[in-house]
Design a protein that fits this description.
Blueprint lengths: L9 H15 L7 H14 L4 H4 E3 L3 H10 L3 E4 L2 H6 L10 E3 L11 H12 L3 E6 L3 H14 L5 E4 L7 H8 L6 E4 L6 H14 L4
Parallel strand pairs: 2-3, 2-4, 4-5, 5-6
Antiparallel strand pairs: 1-6
Helix pairs in contact: 1-2, 2-9, 6-7, 7-8
Length: 204
């Protein structure tokens, strides 16, 4: 049975959690920066499977950190994801969600919101999809069509319809991405990736 650790402060709980993750799982296959992101996702989900499913484009981490240091904005698919992103290290960076701008749509509201945002916004550094596979598929389509390579596409939608196939498609792209090849995902895991980046940009 797990022992209770009493009178721990917030930062001590986080530090202890990271130590437990390091002790219980082998992350030697990841670079030092990839490891920080993987640990943050495992910490947010208590799911060690992410060590086997998370996939990184070779330029994704360096580009994400560069864009955040240049105060480029973050676009998300749903409000739950926006709520999960820590404001502590955002500074002037805005976290944008276009769902409330969409009144009429043919397929899904999230898909239309991502399409509109990518058309309107000119200062994006990260596009993060944590909920809707349709939004991820639309983002991939637009990235391909416009040959976008200066924005990192983070795609970890959760679900049983198109979630895995959308992420598999993302993993085959030549623009910078982060994804996980699993049905699992969601706003907590996606927010964890972004929060890891926000913390890392203060260090590197």
């Amino acid at each position: 049975m797990e022992k209770f650790l009493k009178n721990l402060k917030d930062f001590e709980i986080e530090s202890k959690s990271m130590d437990i993750i390091e002790n219980e799982v082998n992350l030697s296959g990841f670079s030092s920066l990839e490891k920080e992101i993987v640990k943050r996702v495992i910490h947010a989900t208590a799911d060690f499977e992410y060590k086997d499913t998370l996939k990184f484009h070779p330029q994704a981490i360096s580009l994400a950190l560069k864009n955040l240091k240049e105060e480029k904005n973050i676009l998300v698919d749903v409000e739950m994801l926006r709520a999960g992103i820590s404001k502590r290290f955002l500074g002037k960076i805005k976290v944008l969600c276009y769902l409330d701008k969409i009144k009429n749509y043919e397929t899904t509201r999230t898909e239309k919101a991502i399409e509109l945002a990518l058309e309107k916004e000119k200062n994006l550094g990260i596009v993060a999809i944590g909920n809707a596979p349709t939004a991820l598929l639309k983002a991939i389509e637009i990235f391909q069509k416009k040959e976008i390579k200066n924005i990192v596409l983070i795609g970890l939608p959760v679900g049983f319809v198109n979630a895995f196939s959308a992420k598999l498609l993302l993993s085959k792209q030549d623009f910078p991405y982060i994804t996980n090849l699993s049905r699992k995902g969601g706003s907590p895991a996606t927010a964890a990736v972004i929060n890891a980046f926000l913390k890392l940009k203060e260090i590197f």
